[in-house]
UniProtKB/TrEMBL annotation:
InterPro entries, per database record: Homeodomain-like_sf (IPR009057), RNaseH_sf (IPR036397), Transposase_5 (IPR052338), WH-like_DNA-bd_sf (IPR036388)
SUPFAM superfamilies from the UniProt entry: Homeodomain-like
Designated name of the protein: Transposase Tc1-like domain-containing protein
Upper classification of the organism: Eukaryota, Metazoa, Chordata, Craniata, Vertebrata
Signal peptide, first to last residue: none
Source organism per UniProt: Oryzias latipes (Japanese rice fish)
Superkingdom of origin organism: Eukaryota
GO molecular function: nucleic acid binding
Amino acid sequence: RVRRTADEIISLDKKGEDYKKISKALHISQNSIAKVIQTLKKDGSATILQRCPGRPRKLTSQQERLLMRRVKEDRHATSLQQAKAVESQTGYTVSCDTIRRTLKPLLKPMHKKARLEFARPHAEKDEDYWGSILWSDETKITLFGIDGFKTVWHHKVKHGGDSVLMWAA
């Protein structure tokens, strides 16, 4: 399709049509028409280069494989540590967000199942219920009781995230 469009632009230009008429006939911007014709006159060939849609890739497939290997070796390393490791091995600066975006597909079906198993029974809970729950992310929480201390018991979540769910008394 792209090659045919370039050929159509060239043939209409050779017939003496101006950019505006070619643009209307082919439903392409005048700038694109001008670039194709100028490229033809300059290089002798007219090709229309199309970019892949979406966000340009920051990491090459080789760098992604390197990152995956590093994650399998040390699953507890933070994205900042992984970014520094990739930079030291490849000499290529990568942000923590890029590391997280690349690792997002590591959520396996068992992780999705565990999240659903938690979400389904809690989906219809009211606001008062959620107000009595304390969520902690790497936060040390000390609760004081009659004897000065109160023990909070929680059970481990098999395939959940890093958060701990605790019910307040």
